[in-house]
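Example 5.3 — Acetamidase/formamidase family protein
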Amino acid sequence: MTPALAQTSAGKAPAPPSYRHLPANADTVRWGCFSTTLTPRVEIDSAGIVTIETLPHPAADDLERMVQGDEGAESVYLWTTDRKGVDRRGAGSTDPAVCKVGSADGRGVHILTGPVHGWGAKPGDVLELRILDCVPRPGANPDFAGKSFGSNAASWWGCHYNDMPGGAKREVITIYRVDATGDKSRAKAVCNFRWGPQTDPFRVTRPTIDYPGGPIDHALTDFTFNVLKGIRIPIRPHFGTLGVAPAEADFVDSVPPSHTRGNVDKWPIGKGAIMYSPVSVEGALVSVGDPHASQGDSELCGTAIECSLAGTFQSILHKKADLAGTPLQEMDRPMLETRVEWVVHGFSGPNHLGALGATAQADIYGKPSVDDAMRDAFAKMRRFLMTTKGLTEDDAHSPMSVGVDFGITPVADGNWGVHAIVPCHRAMPS
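Solution (predicted structure tokens):
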């Protein structure tokens, strides 16, 4: 193996890795939820490699640039007066008598590709997922041949929305062209427009952006071009949502992150990173989505530059029986490793699905707390240092204060987060 955190397979001769490819279309994605009930779309063994295509959930903001001509995206975004390409959207009921804002009650918004079944993975194991590559997918509309685009919405769930001067409340969508072909990869704004009430194909009028995927009637919006003049955003492609399936419910809202990771929205989750996740269900059932061209810590306005990506991953399974005496022996939490740092994630509710009972998926939205997330990040970082570095309880606190950076992970995801960062250095995975 590599000089990554875990070395539990040292000395074993590696077999040539298998390879799979998973496209994004209406048969391989679901909208807004992790689930243990879905048939895996592909299976990989330990050390196996899979390339996964992902789609952004707000691509309907500009169907012309982000969907048209892409057969897979068109199948996902299909929505007429008769049907949707992907009917279930969210983790709630699909009974029209109880749905409030649409199929599956609107809880959960991300388009997730998968699940990917990890051969031999069992509860108690740890899955190491290496991101070997992560690149924007160009659009297929011949009018924009070879170009990639993304959408950023300053939305009602963003932290800015209730704090605008004069109490103004508005949602503004900015479309970016994403260029990853040069020495300096950048995103440049193409245009923006204010959201106005839209009536979806099922004739439900939506005054705010509460249900991504509906085609937008741009006759009701005013495009403004030549915006953000002279501003270029460095791109750092990454996946906002990446994780294994939780065991606590059949369908789990994709928005709040949890102990199985999910929607962490941390920009280093891109090429060269390694994700460690505790396995909760047989096969682990990995899903990936919410692709971002760029995002800052906190994701303040509610979204990143949401842009279609293709990721190539290698899966390494660490069996529970082999974890004793390794840094992974107490790995009951998600963790990220990059070339230069380890990142431990704390949340307002570390495992809200287990702690809040039957109504957890609704209740977590009423419990966002940076204070609680900071306490959780502290507790996890303390355990990390004691486990991986052999520190005592008395030893652990000083390096946390003088050598660990704590920062805000997105505050737009219901289950707010604080991440703790420890510098490290390693070679790229071989």
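Remark. The chain has a mean pLDDT of 91.
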